[in-house]
Design a protein that fits this description.
The structure holds two protein chains of two kinds. Chain A is an alpha/beta fold. Chain A is built from 15 helices and 19 strands. The model of chain B has no long low-confidence stretch (mean pLDDT about 95). The chains are: A alpha/beta, B alpha/beta. Bound molecules: iron/sulfur cluster.
Chain lengths: ~475, ~200
């Protein structure tokens, strides 16, 4: 048998029908939905008089719109409320399991899936959300889809797909203290650009990736879409199996052992080739800070804001000029001289327990700078419980951070957590697009350690110096 | 979905690269539960000032481009969030064709499913068309999907690639869910074989 990439193995395992000149019908194992992108899909089903083929393979949560303050209070945003009610009604009507606002496991869809054991190696997983690539950290093929496709999956448990190319991103070596998975992925995006992965599925390989824990791997796969990739994936190993074991929807007992035996066959065969590949060295990586209005506009914390006049192309020059106007920054300003107003620690990129632990370590026995407003938003109720059991909430509160309920929150600011015009934020989320965190708000993407340190100093600092 | 065979329309040049779906339709408009009515919010933050008044400098607000149905724009159009609200807003506003050097994957897919044709041309060709639609009043193009051609008023044409299956779906306005459901027994076989 010829050598295959992990992507190709998973793809081949899920083909229902594949003929020349047609899109492939690909079977979907797990389908996740949330309140914002699903209402029109259910409406479409009703209009066409269609049902949900496999209600037990779709799972719903409320995350994008939900308030992160006291949940016993009524929701004041009536349109958000309507969207949440619509999801509840749709789930009831079609028999879909829902983790609603008051469910003890509610959380951001990409935090929830792995936590419940819905995310397993070798699966195909889709969700009407571009950061579905997160689940690829388990050696699954996971990608974001549009609402028409949500409807397609609901009706058929399949999707029409075209085979993408494969892209190996190899990172070898050992990370320095204070350099994280977030810095790896921001560096990758800075290097290949926000469309560098378009049309491909990325597999991250190399010793630096192997040494990451599963949650750090999720951070990397999560932001694959910020390089335009369809999906990101990492080969499963013992750490993965251990993470999956014992979760609500994971296989149990003998079934689990059988599953592990099949999962072990997933990694890319030696000799298999990728359509594209690049290699980075982990030793060279430094904490990253974005300075512009998309994730490829990123530099080392030790550098300065770039000068548009030095950009290689006219397009890049113009884009950099626009970005600097929007961001209110001057060329050649050292990154460590940029003062901030807000800090957001959260989002499906960096809101898991390990993220909160490392941020708390930085915050411990220190104080948030006066004039900075800093919030910590756990990715799920389960993360929140775990953090509270470990006393992390107390560490954050004592330092002057606000401790919130789980949700997407200021990652996209659909609830009340919004930047005011001109406010500058150090954010652990994944997008620094114009207006993403509030109209005319200015977002700098960083790791959880870097965000916590910025909160304390009131400006960006090189967290590597805080090592001892 | 409406079939798409041929389209003749007014071009609107939007000379920016990497326009993300947060710009096409900002998140505050994602709370509707319908597919329609998003057109008035298309490019909201560029089209309107904070007080809701119209920004006369933005291209869609210039009289010359009123009624435009073909958007000509920069590389990597539609990157970012997977929200299908972006093609819904473009369609609701009246756009049927978008011409760019490249598109983000999910966005491109979402367009085809809503009867908007994404046309990929070389950067040079897009720049030529961008320039023509900026300097000539009422610059119109004809797009022939069957022949895979973009035809200029002077009859010079550019050919473009599109996946055959996707092309057929658009030409015939095929309901993709219905298409997949023809193979219901194969899906059932797959489930049985996989123990699902
Ligand atoms: S946290 Fe942000 S990126 Fe992640 S699912 Fe929520 S809105 Fe999307």
């Amino acid at each position: 048998m010829s050598s295959k990439t992990m992507f190709k193995k998973i793809w081949d395992n899920h083909v229902v029908r594949e003929l020349q000149g047609e899109a492939t019908i690909l079977y979907i194992d797990t389908h996740l939905i949330h309140e914002v992108t699903s209402p029109q899909a259910f409406e479409g089903l009703r209009l066409a008089n269609r049902g949900v083929r496999r209600p037990s393979q779709t799972f719903a949560t409320m995350d994008h719109n939900v308030p992160t303050t006291d949940r016993s209070l009524p929701i004041t945003d009536l349109i958000s409320k309507k969207q949440m009610e619509t999801l509840t009604e749709n789930c009831e009507e079609f028999g879909i399991r829902l983790y609603d606002l008051h469910h003890s496991d509610q959380g951001i869809v990409h935090v929830l899936g792995p936590e419940l054991g819905l995310t397993q190696p070798g699966m195909t997983i889709v969700c009407g959300d571009s950061h579905t690539s997160t689940h690829g950290a388990f050696g699954a093929l996971a990608f974001g889809i549009g609402t028409s496709e949500i409807e397609h999956v609901l009706a058929t448990q399949c999707l029409l797909q075209y085979q993408p190319e494969t892209f190996e991103i190899r990172i070898d070596g050992q990370l320095q203290f204070g350099v994280t998975a977030k810095d790896i992925i921001l560096s990758v995006i800075g290097k290949i650009g926000i469309d560098g992965g378009t049309g491909t599925v990325v597999e991250y390989t190399g010793s630096a990736i192997k040494s990451l824990d599963v949650e750090e791997r999720m951070t990397i796969c999560n932001m694959s879409i910020e390089a335009g990739a369809r999906a990101g994936m990492i080969a499963p190993d013992d750490k993965t199996y251990e993470y999956v074991a014992g979760r609500e929807f994971s296989p149990k007992g003998e079934e689990f052992d059988k599953a592990v035996a099949t999962w072990k066959k997933l990694p890319t065969d030696s000799g298999a080739t990728y359509d594209h590949s690049i290699t980075l060295s982990a030793e060279d990586l430094v904490p990253q800070v974005t300075w512009g209005t998309n994730p490829e506009m990123v530099v080392n914390v030790t550098e300065t804001v770039p000068d548009p006049d030095k950009m290689p192309t006219q397009h890049q020059k113009k884009a950099a000029e626009n970005a600097l106007v929007y961001m209110g920054l001057r060329p050649n300003t050292p990154i460590t001289q940029i003062a901030i107003d807000k800090v957001f620690i959260g989002s499906c990129t960096n809101s898991r327990i390990t993220d909160l632990r490392v941020a708390a370590e930085v915050a411990k026995d220190r104080k948030v700078s006066s004039g900075v407003n800093a919030i910590v938003v756990p990715g799920s109720q389960a993360v929140k419980r775990q953090a509270e059991a470990e006393g992390l909430d107390k560490v954050f509160r004592a330092a002057g951070f606000e401790w919130r309920e789980a949700g997407c929150s200021m990652c996209l600011a659909m609830n009340d957590d919004v930047l005011q015009p001109g406010e500058r934020c150090a954010s652990t989320s994944n997008r620094n697009f114009e207006g993403r965190q509030g109209k005319d708000g200015r977002t700098h993407l960083v790791s959880p350690q870097m965000a916590a340190a910025a909160a304390i100093e009131g400006k960006f600092v090189d967290v590597r110096a805080w090592g001892n | 979905m409406e079939p798409f065979r041929e389209h003749i329309g007014l071009c609107v040049p939007l000379d920016r690269v990497n326009i993300d779906t947060d710009q096409i339709i900002p998140k505050q408009f994602l709370k509707r539960i319908e597919r329609t009515g998003f057109g008035e919010f298309l490019f909201n933050d560029w089209r309107y000032y904070d007080d809701g008044s119209i920004n006369p400098d933005f291209i869609l607000n210039r009289d010359l481009y009123k009624g435009g149905t073909i958007l000509i724009t920069g590389a990597n159009f539609g990157c970012g969030s997977s929200r299908e609200h972006a093609p819904w807003a473009l369609l609701d506003y009246g756009f049927r064709v978008i011409i760019a050097p490249s598109f983000a994957d999910i966005f491109k897919n979402n367009c085809c499913k809503n009867g908007i044709l994404p046309v990929i041309l070389s950067t040079e060709s897009v720049e030529e068309l961008m320039l023509a639609s900026t300097s000539e009043d009422g610059y119109r193009l004809k797009i022939d999907l069957e022949a895979q051609l973009v035809i200029r008023p002077d009859n010079v044409s550019y050919s473009f690639e599109i996946d055959n299956f996707q092309k057929n779906c658009m030409l015939k306005g095929i309901d993709e869910i219905g298409w997949t459901l023809q193979f219901e027994s194969q899906i059932a076989d797959y489930e049985a074989k996989s123990g699902i």
